[in-house]
Amino acid sequence: xxxxxxxxxxxxxxxxxxxxxxxxxxxxxxxxxxxxxxxxxxxxxxxxxxxxxxxxxxxxxxxxxxxxxxxxxxxxxxxxxxxxxxxxxxxxxxxxxxxxxxxxxxxxxxxxxxxxxxxxxxxxxxxxxxxxxxxxxxxxxxxxxxxxxxxxxxxxxxxxxxxxxxxxxxxxxxxxxxxxxxxxxxxxxxxxxxxxxxxxxxxxxxxxxxxxxxxxxxxxxxxxxxxxxxxxxxxxxxxxxxxxxxxxxxxxxxxxxxxxxxxxxxxxxxxxxxxxxxxxxxxxxxxxxxxxxxxxxxxxxxxxxxxxxxxxxxxxxxxxxxxxxxxxxxxxxxxxxxxxxxxxxxxxxxxxxxxxxxxxxxxxxxxxxxxxxxxxxxxxxxxxxxxxxxxxxxxxxxxxxxxxxxxxxxxxxxxxxxxxxxxxxxxxxxxxxxxxxxxxxxxxxxxxxxxxxxxxxxxxx
Length: 461
Fold this sequence. Notes:
This protein is an alpha/beta fold. 38% of the residues lie in helices and 14% in strands. It folds into 2 domains: 225 residues, Periplasmic binding protein-like II (D-Maltodextrin-Binding Protein, domain 2); 203 residues, Periplasmic binding protein-like II (D-Maltodextrin-Binding Protein, domain 2, 3-Layer(aba) Sandwich), CATH 3.40.190.10.
């Protein structure tokens, strides 16, 4: 999967999230049911700006959409079932609109010449390799939604800003894209296997170590990760561990992102690194991890050759064709907290936006109002197998059980949610490479720190 490395925050006290992501959803370093009926009318209360495509007023004073409308969406671990369904619903509600889908696993590369040439699609889902929201904003490719979003309502008549679990990120005080998907890193296991073997599901680091001892004694390797893409273990183990060791204060990660040397030298960083060392020295880490990619590690996990795997919520959907019968995913955002400590959710989002040079902005805004409804949140959770960024109770939906489990964690006021943090690319790579080296005893935690500090000092000049 191809993920972006953007770690997003949730307003925990107000969150009621529904779960989902694109396989390899928000970090982009790798290669990559029953649904509610459409709202009675997807034609929306008049959007503020008119597009070049024609639109006329209907008798009930809503905009009647017409003309061509093109949607670009990346297909990764979340699949395309939701996109197919929501686009069909939107088309049915707007019969005079000619909706064109441009989707697929390589769509971002395929559409790049059009973005560069000033002839982009009208609406874009920003996920997968080849798209970076900050770069698109800096290149002037996205529509400024700041004023529109202040009063924009979904098709149910609710202010969109009121129902977002994760608010839209601002770029110099302006909004250009809105988070649609909400993901959390974490640890997965097979509930069926654990029940069969009588293994206790982990709730903290000590219980994780205790059950891993039993798993190893039974002849199964406790833990496998994706050594070729170390952001999986950093996102699921290292960063939550740093926050836990820093009294649940995630500002240490923000200081690391600002390349502050003292942040990397924090006792919390060493404490977190030593937890990885504990897993290594106890022989819990599969020796194959260091050289394999995400799908290889995920296959070994699905074959019950390894009991735990760090991953994002897109993983079950990404591997849906390979999941054995009876395999039941267990999930917890973090296992590195002390007994009685708070769970730490390292989250990320994928966003949607309107092209600044789009030809039918009226339809694009109407589509935004259509997708940001609670019905679509539930539908997303069911069809993609991960939470949406729309607040809502999905307990009675057909969403997978692990998605409902994740939503419970994300709505629990005792969960610590890490806000959006983007590390310098060189520092990020240095941290990943150093973590890989640490897992195979090539360096010590202190040497991990020195390696990364050297790079941080260099880029900070």
